[in-house]
Amino acid sequence: MSDKRTIKRKGIRIFHVLLIILVVYVGFVMNHQRKLMNNLQDRRATVETQITSLEREIKLLNDEIGKSGTLEFIEKVARDDLGMVKPREIIYVDKSLGGNDTLDIFKNDN
Predict the structure, then answer these.
(1) Domain check: are 53 and 100 in the same one?
(2) CA–CA gap between residue 10 and residue 27 (Å, rounded)
(3) Taking phi first (over 0 means left), then psi (-120 to 50 degrees means alpha), and beta for anything else, what does residue 88 get?
């Protein structure tokens, strides 16, 4: 009879050990999944911010495409990108301001 009690006690002990191991394993798995979910939520927020920024840029570019045939747009491109000026127009450049792109355009011409 004492053999049956010893077997029952060993079986109960093994069951408790297995139950503890299972609980610890489930705890680790849930913790890992929580970390993955937080990481995915952060990535989602970043991607949504990028999408918003790109949609805004697309809207601006579409507006610019719509205005590309106007004389004002052509003049703006000629002045800003090509450094052109109107006849008898004098450009004054303040040398105290750093990083002036206008000077770079004229240096490339010479």
Answers:
(1) no
(2) 26
(3) left
Angstrom distance (rounded) from CA 76 to CA 84: 10
Domain match, 58 and 92 both: no
Q: Global pTM? A: 0.51
Note down the domain range covering 20: 1-67
Q: Which two tokens stand for residue 65?
A: 């495409």
**Residue 17 vs residues 6, 8, 72, 106: alpha-carbon distances, Å:** 16, 14, 81, 82
The tokens describing 13, both together, are 């002990």
pLDDT in tens, 54-90: 999 999 999 988 888 888 888 888 888 888 888 888 8
